[in-house]
Design goal:
The protein is mainly beta. It has three helices and 41 strands. The longest helix has 11 residues. It is globular.
């Protein structure tokens, strides 16, 4: 029996929170597969012949909910370190004009699982015991091999935010950098973190800590290689490969090595001016490249109550295409899988790739339910998908979205990888004559400027054959189009 043959589906069960969490933290280490089922507040440890489920009772009383929603996990020797946040106990405040939960018992946490002895230890926890606010969640765990400690970025929360170091033996916490951070990674002998008001403005810069000298350096982000504006580049995850940082954000990715004077330039990917992006998932190093998911929906307003929330509900709930698995091997970016609403976690087990998936997003603060609302499962794929022909994929979006972005100097949409497709095409339904600019580029390192081509559009249906283009293509209209539609078909 294999470890993945013991996996099963997870239908909605008790766990007070906002909408749905998912399967997070997938990590296979020394014959044990770990993952957390959120919002049910269950940490699973699966072996070929048994399974252990831990319900965070070391943090507080049951019933618990939450667990992890950012894939905070790392391994050191015989230990799996897993973190996140948990309500212990969970308190559902009931349903009226709004539905809420209490945050009085919400804790940020780090646990240690001893693989050899099947033992769980609570390393550290933190709470501000507030009714509506919470201490910064643990959204990543990066092991510092120079100083034998855990580095913890904390961005999602109201207090105790920034980048912390946790002594993995004593649990003592030390604030290293007060700047908000969601994700980080090791690059050469530095630990580098994406920083800023991520959920408000997107990624705002890179801070790197020299693990030897303990000195910090701050680096700004550079412009897009298509010379157009970047809107709300919300950071999903950050990876290290090719002696560079890959910061995956809503609308594309930043690539570079600011430590070696190569700035973090932006390449547009899957920009539809919706919430579509690599959010609440993880980047996996595999085959020397990087595998990442761009999700169709991840966080959304379920019942908007204000004018601003009505706008955000349209932004977050508009579905333009499937969630895709993207394999980055510069200069290539290749779609290797197409799936439903969300891919929440990615891991490699032998010759298999495991995906945590979910049908439902997180929802807003006043739309709490006493149970998780999503159907979750773990999909097992053969690793050979990385080398096979890509799946047929289609994207469809209202042209009003990029047209509205034009008022902010943006409006370039797409960023569609064409690798492996023989018959890609763009169909534009236009309410008037217009002009379309097509940008062509790839992920050769360092990133180079995009090539531009211009085509005339006629009122009505325009079919544009993209087979003469290569690499990645994105598009921009000369004049706003509020009544049209674009459909991208990859075959």
């Amino acid at each position: 029996m294999t470890v993945w043959s013991r996996l099963y589906r997870f239908p909605p069960r008790y766990g007070p929170e906002w909408g749905s969490g998912g399967i997070f933290g997938l990590r296979y280490h020394k014959d044990v597969l770990y993952f957390t089922v959120a919002f049910e507040g269950e940490a699973h440890f699966v072996r070929e012949n048994d399974e252990r489920i831990y319900e965070f009772e070391l943090v507080g009383e049951k019933p618990t909910s939450g667990g992890d929603t950012y894939n905070a996990v790392d391994v050191v020797d015989e230990f799996i370190y897993f973190g996140g946040w948990v309500h212990a106990p969970a308190i559902y405040n009931g349903k009226g004009e709004s539905s809420t939960i209490s945050f009085v018992n919400k804790y940020s946490h780090i646990h240690e699982y001893d693989v050899e002895n099947d033992e769980i230890r609570l390393v550290w926890k933190d709470s501000i015991h507030h009714l509506t606010d919470w201490a910064g969640e643990v959204s990543d765990i990066i092991y510092d091999p120079v100083n034998d400690r855990l580095l913890i970025p904390r961005e999602d929360g109201h207090q105790n935010l920034g980048i912390y170091a946790i002594d993995r033996k004593t649990g003592k916490a030390e604030l290293l950098n007060p700047t908000r951070s969601l994700k980080g990674t090791i690059l050469h002998d530095n630990a580098c973190f994406g920083v800023g008001l991520n959920f408000a403005n997107g990624l705002e810069g890179i801070h790197c800590l020299d693990l030897v000298t303990q000195k910090w350096e701050k680096f700004p982000l550079d412009s897009s290689i298509d010379d157009n504006s970047i809107m709300r580049p919300i950071l999903g995850d950050i990876a290290s490969a090719y002696n560079r940082l890959f910061a995956f954000v809503r609308g594309g990715l930043f690539v570079g090595n600011p430590l070696n004077d190569e700035t973090m330039k932006f390449a547009r990917l899957f920009e539809f001016y919706t919430a579509y992006g690599p959010i609440r998932t993880n980047a996996l190093s595999i085959g020397g490249g990087v595998l990442i998911a761009y999700n169709s929906i991840h966080d959304a307003f379920y019942k908007p109550r204000t004018e601003q929330e009505i706008k955000l509900a349209k932004f977050t709930n508009t579905i333009v295409g499937p969630s895709v698995l993207l394999y980055i091997t510069p200069p290539m970016a290749k779609i290797v899988g197409a799936f439903g609403a969300r891919i929440t976690s990615i891991e490699k087990v032998g010759g298999k790739i495991l995906l945590g998936t979910n049908t439902t997003p997180n929802t807003g603060a006043l739309d709490a339910t006493p149970h998780d609302t999503g159907n979750k499962d773990i999909v097992v794929l053969d690793e050979k998908i990385l080398q096979e022909k890509p799946p047929e994929v289609s994207f469809s979006l209202p042209l009003a979205f990029p047209s509205m972005a034009m008022q902010f100097g943006a409006g370039t949409f797409g960023g569609i990888p064409l690798e492996g497709y023989k018959e890609p095409r763009l169909i534009i339904y236009s309410s008037k004559d217009n002009e379309l600019t097509i940008y062509e580029y790839d992920l050769s390192l360092p990133l180079m400027q995009a090539y531009q081509d211009r085509l005339d559009l006629k009122k009505g249906r325009n079919v544009i054959d993209l087979s003469s283009f290569s690499g990645i293509v994105s598009f921009k209209l000369k004049e706003p189009e509020f009544n049209g539609k674009a459909r991208i078909e990859l075959k």
